[in-house]
Write a structure and sequence with these properties.
Blueprint: E1 16-20, H1 22-39, E2 46-51, H2 55-64, E3 70-79, E4 85-93, H3 97-100, E5 104-112, H4 116-126, E6 132-140, E7 153-157, E8 162-164, E9 180-183
Parallel strand pairs: 2-3, 2-5, 5-6, 6-7
Antiparallel strand pairs: 1-9, 3-4, 8-9
Bound molecules: guanosine-5'-monophosphate (5GP).
Guanosine-5'-monophosphate is lined by residues 50, 53, 78-79, 85, 109-118, 162-164, 168-170.
């Protein structure tokens, strides 16, 4: 009998609470893609995906967009193992000056939570003199914000739940789920 490799990460996992279906996500991604196309009609942006969590969102977003956006990545880390924020954000690497100087840049995030990670990305990228710098995030949880950051393009605003799926993980699990799920857990902050 064939073993089901995804059995522990399937939506049948009793700890997973369905929040958004693949169809709902697809609709929001298409809507954001349309807005970006409209806003950047005369000057296509450089989309800078924040790894790792944004990789699926970015892939779907760029395929829904009509404008010829360029893709870069930035690697940050703000979370230790589990669901607790370390409070320290490290920029491991990102695009060079030549990739974004004088270009309109959009940072693409999976989720803006405290905002510390995205703020660190913005500070890092700003030093490379982009023509403009905006934030696009699939998920926004403003109740936990510890910075003044406001995202320019938002898929879903919500509160509560630690979420997984559609690129978002818990200790590297659940990224491959097609929907987004809340995960029962003990968050301490
Ligand atoms: P922030 O710096 O805004 O607190 O956190 C940003 C990063 O923390 C996200 O890019 C993501 O990697 C992680 N994160 C924050 N909240 C969640 C969540 O509910 N689920 C998952 N999987 N990651 C989260």
């Amino acid at each position: 009998m064939q073993t089901n490799r995804r059995s522990t990460t399937s939506p049948a996992d009793p700890r997973l609470i369905p929040l958004w279906t693949p169809e709902q996500i697809s609709d929001r991604v298409a809507s954001i893609a349309g807005k970006i196309d409209h806003d950047y009609a005369s000057n296509p942006p450089v989309l800078v995906g924040a790894l790792k969590g944004s990789f699926i969102f970015l892939a779907d977003l760029v395929r829904q967009m009509k404008s010829p956006a360029e893709i870069e990545f930035i690697r940050l880390s703000s979370y230790n193992a589990g669901t607790e924020s370390s409070g320290h954000v490290r920029v491991a690497w990102g695009p060079g000056v030549e990739e974004i100087k004088d270009r309109p840049v959009i940072v693409v995030e999976d989720i803006v939570d405290t905002g510390l990670t995205t703020s660190a990305a913005l500070s890092h990228l700003r030093r490379k003199r982009p023509a403009s710098l905006r934030v696009c995030t699939l998920l926004d949880r403003p109740e936990r914000r510890r910075t003044k950051l406001t995202a320019d393009y938002v898929g879903f605003t919500f509160s509560g739940h630690f979420v997984v799926g559609y690129g978002l993980d818990l200790d590297q699990r659940y990224r491959g789920l097609q929907g987004i799920y809340g995960l029962e857990h003990d968050r301490k902050n």
